[in-house]
Batch of 2 targets.
Target 1
Amino acid sequence: MKDLCITLYKGFSAVSGETGLLPVMEDIRNGKYADIVHRITDFALRGMKKEAELLKKSLPYLSLTANYARRRLPHSIIRYNHAVTIDIDGLADDRIPDLRRRVESDPDVLACFLSPKQHGLKIFVFLRTAFACKLREVTFSAAEVSYDSLEKYHAQMYDAARRHIEQLTGVQVDTSGSDLSRGFFISSDPCAYLNRTLLEEIPDYPARILPADKPAGKSADTSRKSPRPAAGKPDVPPATVEPWEQMEYRKALSTTKRTDRFTEGNRDNFLYILGNRCYRKGISEASACTLILRDFGREDMDVLAPVRNAYTYISKTEAAQKVKEEKRPLINRVMEFLEQHYGIRRNVILDRLEFLPLGASGTSDTSGTSGSEACKGIYRPMRGKDYNSIFVDLQMSGIVCFQNFLKSVIDSDYAADFNPFLDYLARLPAWDGTDYIGALAATVRTDDQELWTEGFRRWLVGMVACALNEEDMNQLVLILYSEQGKGKSSWIRRLLPPQWKEYFYNGMIDPGNKDHAQLLSTRLIINMEEFEGVKPGELAELKRIITQENVTQRKVWDAQAFTFVRHASFIGSTNNRQCLQDIGGNRRFLPVTVKEVDYRTPVNHAGVYSQVLALLKEKYRYWFEGHEIELLNLHNELHRMKDPVEENLFVYFRKALPEDLCVKWMPAAAILSKIAVYGKVQVNRQAMQALVQSLEKYMFRSRTNAQGSTEYEVVDIQQADVEANFRK
């Protein structure tokens, strides 16, 4: 059976042997190192990062992409395996199963397993796209491949594999592992995945890899141990160590001893890390060699080689990186910095930018925040101060740009669109068949429970439909009537899950106020708490708003007007039973008389909204139509405040019956004159309009006389009969 060679290391550099991908994956699946991995995970969960890192270094360190003869250095490379190593770190526990399914379903993924901390994925990729195949063919068609050519090839192949995995998973890859010599720690994962079919199909390329030239001044074999130089005569001239260098050296040594041990099998690694820290603190190489030789010099080992390697590698890497960074376009450097340090998104509902500071590992960093903003993973609105803070961070990182340049980058398509409604609903589980909406409706006891339950179900489904689809509108308004202190407003506020708390508005809407009009787009529920205070003119305007599809406005900072989609649904509460006023019909309102409200029982928001989604998928009709509207209008008559003209009409007149002999055909003005005299109603255009609407509503027969005026068939009730009716 075919296998790929893996290099084993003693520490991070010295080669200790070779093994294969098959036995390594078998060890990972069988839990050979499960005890250590479990302890690492436990340390990480308890926030003991240093202990976790120290214990992780006790695991075997391996490399698959490239194999080496003596050391993990360019001049020691012997083989390239074409399997690119990809790292995804900082994953939440609930995201890992879905990401694994996506990764393992891809035919170009060779292997995949959890990292030692169990919060990341290690992925080996052998791309077979047209680009990858062509790149391999061009690079390895020659008999020999230079190390420089191999590095360029690997950089292109890594970038292609990175983009492939990011597109597959939707998660950003950790690009710190893009180098050719990238290794990995062995782990423990009973579900580790290996694509044996792909392993068999990886071709063998006969091209020989030409190692890089050894660094000048190195011995023929630095892996061999050299005798300790005679006292006072090291292989570098003893340096005059400055006092400040000695002080910084002691700090570096103390820090290194806290994370590593100078023990058999780890000496080179210890000295390399110590040399690295000395370099970072500005200690000269000669001074570092003198001090390290003094403290760790031994006859049986070359203590200076790892130190020199650290200085050589780091200085060259930093210089090359600096030159490379300076050549890269400024916009690329700024965008890369933002990706590493901030999560930035555009809230399409509130039409605003939001950001989340990220820690070093790509997780949320809440240092410097307070209150609810200090909660992990909470995005905050981008304010002027936040732009300034990001600008300062850029300058401190050596990326020099103008502040307007930074704002232009952030306030562009760079910020990914975020819809809080879709985001929450997409994470809900499938509906399990339980009537969660009915259970929620049952927490409000009304005088007509069946009508209330059905109306609430339709209103809730319409609310979500209006939030998700531009073409859908929720034209039904629920109105809860009871005396004060029942808890109506408290119950209404709990209809939305905590994730949507910001999209709730409490108060009446003033259509003439531009900020209020904008609420139609930026809020999900508008609770009209004092609905009885609506004036007749305002009610007509409110009915117009309820049917409004969108809002066209020019915001203060915009040069032109834009159209914003309406997302809001309306609900209200009142202490006045007769809260409706329109004689022509109130089909858009559903008032209910509330007897008791239970606003303390927790709401199962996940169950309620998963049921709503299921109903929407089943094409549930959330609006009233036909005969249902007639029944709704009939119900609403109990909650309509009638105009004095309408009430007095039936005090002094009535509809004619077939057997009536004293029938009169009277114009509306004549009818109003009598009502005005006896009912003390003021005669004006508004009263005339109310009378005509009443006559039409109750279907009084009408005709047009010779003068073109409309007359109505009525029976004039005599004053004696009126008085008698009052006494009944």
Target 2
Amino acid sequence: MEHTPGIPTPERLERGPVACIECVQCIPCNPCETACPQKAITVGAEITALPRLDADKCNGCGICITRCPGLAIFNLHKNYSETTSLVSFPYEYVPLPEPGASVRCTNRDGAFVTQGTVHSVRNVPAFDHTAVVTVEIPKEYLMDVRGIDRKGGQ
């Protein structure tokens, strides 16, 4: 993943919340580009190009997370605390997890990575039935956690 044009640099991760675009499909798609109020995401004239993230322009607002039809955009906040990070991801299942719940955090393939705590759940009409779930996890798993497993228990 680190070679895709939507991954923020380690230096940028140190500065605060930022989008992380893990899109690997060269398909006609640009909702993330049109949704970004900071103009931090570009696809360009070739609509099948992978989205590029100008992480210095990104303020971590997270609007792009729910606009990606491939569910491939996440928000990363490496230094939420001295020992924990926050990962925000799109979530389209019910029931929604409750803030404060202990959850099994998973990687891109759905494999268990670590236990985490639901920090927040944002679900507003503008998100068009895609909630944004944010989990607090140990820092060392920032680049691995991309979802949660609800059926394995809370």
